[in-house]
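Need a sequence for this fold. Nothing fancy.
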């Protein structure tokens, strides 16, 4: 990938990871469940960052 596309993909994955962490924190604090969704978002974001930067 060229530089701009790699940066865009990395920022997108970082945004998805942020949403996943935000969701995990609030689902834990307020106890409404769906923690597996948060973990899935975080895992997908980390995997995407690893693939983009490979």
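Here you go.
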């Amino acid at each position: 990938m060229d530089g701009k596309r790699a940066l865009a993909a990395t920022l997108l994955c970082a945004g998805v990871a942020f949403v996943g962490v935000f969701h995990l924190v609030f689902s834990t604090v307020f106890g409404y469940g769906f923690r597996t969704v948060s973990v899935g978002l975080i895992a997908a974001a980390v995997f995407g960052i690893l693939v983009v930067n490979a």
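For context: The first helix runs from residue 3 to 30.
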